């Protein structure tokens, strides 16, 4: 199988793609930098999103369709994916010009509408990919995020392990431990007495050192590795966010993307000023923080609540030779859906030494999303 180098870009299919790309860039701190006949590419740090025009023949609703992975050999990745059960989306192709050469190949995965585009652009000096031309971008426009931290897929009940096995067999991804309490067999299970808050998670990543057998846990994220998270609802929890995505998206797909930010309070404040709406945790969440964590100041907790930011500490890892000198934690904020359907959203995430995802934040997110869905449902009835 071909070695994965990095996440190259993520492609959205949506109506009025050019307008949506410019509005998104202005609101989320991205910069338009390249365009094609039917697409616009925007970037923030190393994160690149492409907005491509959607027709009903492509898909019935706006969606995140394609993950583009920079690989050593697109043809080898293409052949491995077909052997693992994918179908061909576009045959291997090498484009050559005065700007150099760029090789691509694409497959449709066995799960929903998600496609993988394999790219080898090392020898291409153009602005982005063949077919794109550069556009001037406002360099004074502040970028609020630096790289893609993770990509989360919504899976139908009972299909999570099939997703994980396919990405391992096809691309060589390996399990990534989200939380020290997670089970090797079942993954990370979040359940609560609320009845409608329950999900099972497994995560995978690919980074270059994994090729020689070095463990992926216990390291500092560089933004170069590719992290995938797969989520499915627990049986018997009733209507919930994952099932809502599956219903309104018309099947499994990419539910959200986590974008790393160095200053989550400034990032959320900037996005809110530009009209971005965030999912608000219930007030009880911040009351629980005050009683469960001793180190955050009252000023910090007030800032978190003002900007709908979640905070969770990460326990000491069994691999740690000694306790950390300072708390390891992560902060997260979640936008409301970017599309008219209740499907895809974005996450802002800041990590202070934490590598996984806190159980408290996941539960709080689910409660907040469930509360938001109830409000939307009430307005529609």
Structure characterization notes:
The strands form two sheets. The chain has a nine-stranded mixed β-sheet with strand order 6-7-8-5-1-4-3-2-9. α6 packs antiparallel against α7 (298-306). It has eight helices and 18 strands. A hairpin with a 2-residue loop joins β2 (31-36) and β3 (39-44). 25% of the residues lie in helices and 33% in strands. The longest helix is centred in the last third of the chain and has 22 residues, at 359-380.
Layout of helices and strands:
Elements: E1 4-14, H1 17-28, E2 31-36, E3 39-44, E4 47-53, E5 63-71, H2 74-83, E6 87-97, E7 100-108, E8 115-120, E9 133-134, E10 147-154, H3 160-171, E11 174-176, E12 188-191, E13 198-206, E14 226-233, H4 241-249, E15 253-260, H5 264-273, H6 283-292, H7 298-306, E16 310-313, E17 329-334, E18 345-352, H8 359-380
Parallel strand pairs: 1-4, 5-8, 10-14, 15-18
Antiparallel strand pairs: 1-5, 2-3, 2-9, 3-4, 6-7, 7-8, 10-15, 11-13, 12-13, 13-14, 16-17, 17-18
Tell me the overall shape. globular
Element-by-element helix/strand order: EHEEEEHEEEEEHEEEEHEHHHEEEH
- Average pLDDT taken over every residue: 86
Rg measurement, Å: 20 Å
Major sheet description: 9 strands, mixed
**Separation, N- and C-terminal Cα atoms:** 51 Å
The oligomeric state is single chain
Number of helices: 8
Strand content: 25-35%
Q: Helix- and strand-based class?
A: alpha+beta
Tally of DSSP β-strands: 18
Q: Poorly predicted ranges (pLDDT <50, ≥5 residues)?
A: 209-220
Give the fraction of residues assigned to helices: 10-25%
Query: In which order are the strands of the major sheet placed?
Result: 6-7-8-5-1-4-3-2-9
């Amino acid at each position: 199988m071909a070695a994965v180098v990095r996440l190259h870009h993520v492609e959205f299919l949506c109506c009025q793609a050019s307008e949506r790309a410019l509005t998104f860039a202005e609101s989320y701190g991205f910069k338009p930098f390249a365009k094609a006949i039917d697409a616009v590419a925007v970037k923030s740090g190393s994160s690149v999103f492409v907005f491509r025009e959607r027709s009903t023949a492509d898909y019935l609703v706006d969606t995140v369709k394609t993950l583009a992975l920079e690989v050593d050999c697109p043809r080898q990745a293409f052949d491995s994916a077909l052997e693992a059960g994918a179908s061909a989306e576009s045959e291997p192709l090498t484009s050559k010009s005065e700007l150099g050469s760029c090789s691509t190949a694409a497959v449709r995965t066995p799960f929903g509408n998600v496609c993988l585009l394999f790219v080898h652009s090392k020898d291409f000096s153009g602005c982005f990919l063949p077919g794109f031309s550069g556009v001037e971008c406002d360099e004074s426009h502040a970028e609020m995020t630096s790289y893609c931290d993770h990509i989360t897929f919504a899976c139908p009940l009972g299909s999570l392990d099939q997703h994980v096995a396919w990405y391992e067999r096809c691309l060589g991804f390996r399990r990534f431990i989200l939380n020290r309490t997670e089970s090797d067999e079942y993954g990370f299970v979040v359940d609560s007495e609320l009845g409608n808050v329950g999900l099972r998670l497994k995560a995978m990543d690919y980074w270059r050192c994994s090729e020689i057998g070095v463990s992926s846990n216990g390291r500092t994220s560089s933004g170069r590795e590719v992290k995938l998270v797969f989520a499915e609802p627990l049986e018997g929890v009733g209507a919930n966010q994952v099932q809502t995505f599956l219903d309104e998206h018309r099947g499994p797909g990419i539910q959200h993307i986590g974008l790393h930010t160095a200053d989550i309070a400034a990032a959320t404040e900037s996005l809110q000023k530009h009209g971005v709406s965030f999912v608000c945790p219930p007030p009880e969440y911040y009351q629980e923080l005050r009683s469960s964590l001793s180190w955050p100041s009252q000023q910090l907790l007030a800032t978190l609540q003002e900007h709908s930011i979640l905070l969770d500490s990460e326990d000491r890892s069994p691999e740690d030779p000694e306790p950390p000198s300072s708390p390891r934690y992560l902060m997260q904020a979640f936008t409301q859906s970017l599309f008219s359907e209740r499907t895809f959203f974005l996450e802002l995430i800041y990590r202070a030494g934490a590598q996984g995802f806190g159980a408290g934040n996941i539960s709080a997110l689910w409660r907040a999303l469930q509360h938001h869905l109830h409000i939307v449902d009430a307005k529609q009835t």
